[in-house]
Design goal:
The protein is mainly alpha-helical and 133 residues long. It is built from 6 helices and 2 strands; from the N terminus they run H-H-E-E-H-H-H-H. The termini are far apart.
Length: 133
Amino acid sequence: MYSIGQIAKKSGISVETIRYYEKEGLLEKPQRKESGYRQYNGDAIDRLFFIQQAKELGFSLKEIGELLSIKSDANTVCSDVKYLAEDKLSDIENKIKMLRRMEKSLKKLVDACPGEAPISDCPILDSLGKRST
């Protein structure tokens, strides 16, 4: 059994975040000593690593909750997870497209700015103040 500080250290996740995951239902409520201190088993550390890795892939906490539910349900199949992963991949691809459009627009503005003009002639600020038609 581990204290919350020990699993925080082993997982690299802060105590506050672990408490938040408990509150959100991503981590089961641990047993408590008579003193009230939380006592976790090794499964909690594995679950924290799962949550952390899923976050690194871009899954939201709600989506991670769905993945954890699927993982613990013997009646689900791999395609259930694949569907969620494909949906997340599509979201990421759309964000990348949006970021590329933003990059292109901002690069055009940066390239148009001479850098030495008075602020009243700044093409970046001028473009930000114009309404789209």
